[in-house]
Amino acid sequence: MKKLICTLLSLAMVLGLAACGSSGAANNAADAAPAASAANSAESDLAYIQDKGTLVVGITEFEPMDYQDANGNWIGFDADMAAAFAESLGVTVEFQIIDWDNKVFELDGKTIDCVWNGMTLTDEVKAAMECSNPYFNNAQVVIVPADVADQYQDVESVKALNFAVESGSAGQAEVEALNAAYTEVADQATALLEVSSGNAEAAVIDFLMAKAMVGEGTSYAGLIDTVSLNSEEYGVGFRKGSDLAAALNQFLADNADVVRATAETYGIADALVEQ
Q: What is the rounded CA–CA span in Å between residue 173 and residue 118?
């Protein structure tokens, strides 16, 4: 009998400890849930920018995408859409001029939150950033003085030219593919200035920029675009894994009428990629 009682007491103690262990595990799991949620929140770029209240946009001077009006305000298709997107998230937009060659470092270092500046969706860009869907079609085009343009109407004829190109740009990549001589400059606007001043024989810039800045009635009436070197698409770049890319895709799809109206304002609606 004593042996039976001892056995029953031992069994009761084991069951009690098991129950305590189960309760502890449940409590631990409950405690872990908020921690996991907090971790997920910490990894959200959307939460990060909403918490600080600003969306910092990395740009260069690039008409008609990002450029300043007479009052020093940033305007252009990309600038206007960035401001509208920021407003939809409940934050303000800030524009920061960057060295285009260092755009990934700026992004990863959180000195900017996105690159929104007529950025070509190259394989390198897509590997380094979380990119939006394409929103514009574009090409890299050769810019030369209008009075010699008849001499440079095909790819072979431009290979001997000395180019000015924006450092780290798609234009630089195209000139390198030509095995042509070139000088790196800070941005595409400077590349045009180099050709206009005679310091370079040609430049390679984005077709959409060429539409706004070269030819009759523009800032560079004495320059003209001739050869198209490729075809490409623009996208917006965020930090790798960022949930802001999906948020922007949804915003562009939900506001298609605003997107088109903004593109029409800057005369580039014919290159728009429908979302």
A: 16
Q: Given the structure tokens 């890319």, which residue do they identify?
A: 245
Question: What tokens does 98 get?
Answer: 């960057």
Beta strands in 79-198 (DSSP E): 92-97, 114-120, 130-131, 136-138, 140-145, 162-166, 181-185
Question: Three-state DSSP class for 206?
Answer: strand
Architecture of domain 140-230: 3-Layer(aba) Sandwich (3.40)
Q: pLDDT (tens digit, 9 = 90+) per residue, 110-126? A: 999 999 999 999 999 99
For position 43, what pLDDT does the model report? 79
- Distance between CA atoms of residues 163 and 145, nearest Å: 12
Q: What is the CATH code of the structural domain delimited by 45-137+233-271?
A: 3.40.190.10
Q: pLDDT (tens digit, 9 = 90+) per residue, 193-219?
A: 999 999 999 999 999 999 999 999 999
CA atoms within 13 A of residue 176's CA, in its CB half-sphere = 9
